[in-house]
What we know:
Elements: H1 7-44, E1 50-53, H2 57-72, E2 78-81, H3 84-92, E3 96-97, E4 108-111, E5 115-116, E6 122-123, H4 130-138, E7 143-148, E8 164-168, H5 173-184, E9 187-190, E10 207-212, H6 220-228, E11 233-236, E12 238-239, E13 245-249, E14 255-259
Parallel strand pairs: 1-2, 1-4, 2-3, 4-7, 7-13
Antiparallel strand pairs: 5-6, 6-12, 8-10, 8-11, 9-10, 13-14
Helix pairs in contact: 1-2
Amino acid sequence: MLLKVTVSQWCSIYRVYQPRFISATKMSLEQAKQVAAYRAVDEFVTNNCVFGVGSGSTVIYAVQRLAEKVETDNLKVTCIPTSFQAKQLILKHNLTLGELDTHPVLDVTIDGADEVDANMTLIKGGGGCLLQEKIVASCSKKLIVIADYTKDSKKLGDRYKKGIPIEVIPMAYVPIKNKIVGLFGGEIKLRSAIAKAGPVVTDNGNFILDWLFINQDLDWQNVDTVIKMIPGVVETGLFVNMCQKAYFGQPEGIVNERSVSSS
Ligand SMILES: O=C(CO)[C@H](O)[C@H](O)COP(=O)(O)O
């Protein structure tokens, strides 16, 4: 028997099932973040370690796991935040808060990323915390990335379509924008705030430019160096040769690992 479904019936089916599909997808994305975060914390947190706490939604799971381990295994861990959000997470979980003044060398930092390419070059700063994240990562013996499967790519720009974040001094954002486009092409947008009129202002009082690059085959180390030479640029969200290992949570709950040597 041929089942005839009219357009309006299809619309009704779509209306009923589409939200369920979206919520299942969201669920598996959150699960993917959680399994990656738990795995990394279990592997890298040790007693008496100095631990860098990254920023973003995946890091929330890492801090939850860290708090559990500190409690159950009676560990002493000093946490160095990479943002206002990270500091609040540390305090909320009653973890020991440290700072770079007293702990200038960290054993490990666990952080999220917006994209990780085949060479383990990262785009970071989707959440606007790239400056402190890069400072803390640069003081860490190891930078470990935790991410869901959507961040795993071959070339930068394959997966993350919002561009490379660049933190800049507000008075210089227009000339910086013109110089970067003149040097490397593409398009640059001043990041706008969502719950405030005007631009996003970072934890450090700066603006964020999102550079929508076109050429995916640039030498990212060179790009990073050249952009940072422009007066008024504070930091870029390109993390080149900084990350040793990445954990990508998969929708079915397993974790894929990639390290510098295996990439
Ligand atoms: O760089 C970051 C914030 O500046 C985050 O680590 C990055 O945006 C990933 O965040 P999420 O875990 O929410 O996907």
